[in-house]
Please model this.
Amino acid sequence: MPFYFALINSFKDQKESSLLNLSLPSSYHIVENYKQVLEFSDRIVARGFINSIIITFFTVIGAVIVCSMAAFVLQRREDKFSGFWSFMLLFGVIVPPAIVPTIWVLQALHIFKTLPSMILLEIAFYFPYAAIMYRGFMKTIPRELDEAAVIDGCGRIRLFFQIIFPLLKPVTITVILLCTLTVFNDFMNPLYFLPGVKNTTAPLTLYCFTGQYYNRWNLLFADTVLMVLPILILYIFLNKKLMAGMVAGALRG
Model:
């Protein structure tokens, strides 16, 4: 129903869409509305989509590599600090990030308002959740496999990437999908940590069609449909793999 509501109102003119109801439009303005959205303010919507795709792509790659490697070390190593690191992972899931100190750190590193800084932040924000998922799934892989590989002369890096990581395929697919959904639709973090017109992301382009004295609801809903459609299609086609990975990790953890 929310998607239908956005879709049907994106077909209306400005006056009719301001009624915010579920009725069919008296006249359709499909091409006109979507063309205005794509050409609005020097194609800012297209720029936002490109930035979101770049951030999402590199965040997913970084999250998969960093979180899987960290989870492997945390799951395999048993010492007096193991409980502490487990608590820190859980702590990272529960406690929200501090906005102002994070901005100070980015400014000190001279990377504030840049796409690389946003990618690093998204990886950091997603790290606890993904590491916990990887760690739970990794408990199903017997330690004897590690020992056999080491006896055969396999180093740690080779052990992980050639033997352990291929076995993590179900949970890796789940992490990729959830990370893509989270990062591409992220509104708050780019708003705080990535200001500037040239740095706008797809969710932030919704601001272009709202104001203090007026709202262009038909264009706002058209932009919403454009933003949701790729993620919706991805979710529909990969939903079974997503659920299989989550269930496998839950049952085996």
